[in-house]
Amino acid sequence: MHRLLQTVTHIAAGFEENFGKVPAIAVGVKHGNACGAGVADTAVEAVQKMLEGDEIAIFGGVVMLNGVIDASVATALMQYHMPDGQNRLLDGVVGSEVTPEAMEILSRAKLRIVTNPALATLTKESLETAPIYRNVRGGMLVQPNYTFVVDLKADYIEQNGTVTEQQQRDMVQAWAVGSTSNSNTICIVKDGRMLGNGVGQQDRVGAAKLAVTRATSRDHDLKGATAYSDSFFPFPDGPLVLADAGITTILTSSGSVKDPEVVKTLADRNVSTTMLPDKLGRGFFGH
Q1: Does the predicted TM-score (pTM) go above 0.90?
Q2: What CATH number was assigned to the domain covering residues 2-121?
Q3: Which among 73, 62, 75 has a CA at the least distance from the CA of 35?
């Protein structure tokens, strides 16, 4: 639940920082990592986008929204793209409020329902700042929380190539999901829909391949999609996996001696790169 809230909050903070408005957000997690994330103008659309990303993975898991769960949202959660008369299996749903009509729909599925009114007003100020404590045998580890929020207009950004406004929005969404997932992570987003999240890999090539495989195995078209890497690419091999899949813009960090080679290799394939300093924005310990 902690990481789910962190992901939703980072999406809200990123959109507020870059676009001045927090959209409707729906994120679904399995085993701590996002397996679906949708951003839209309405909660129903956000839920639909979240489910469309990976309907197999989200069968089970917990979904969080940054707003009210009403009857239309509850119906989408339970029945969108499901066979007639069957409900989707979910372990729990979280929202700022659940209406009585939605409660009736969700209670039939016997899932956990959690509400927190603060979800309706998430901003940059909602980011968790308290240190993270992790138990280890015979003691405890303490590390700072991840409170960085990417600003695509900042002086630290290195832009190579052009990106559309929608790709910028997808970039922020991919950053928010990827930076709050288990590293190594590559996250792919297109049109407000997370299509693949390659998490917990020992190398970035593997993370890129996993993200692409998860997306293409669900029949998603990656042409024009955006990808985020939670740290720099040490070689061009990982980015080439993404370029070969049709991805046309990549947000990553700088800090590798191979940065110029990575940028040139991608530019030769008409893939734009947006870079931020690794020590500033890295999405795992060391930030």
Answers
A1: yes
A2: 3.40.140.20
A3: 62
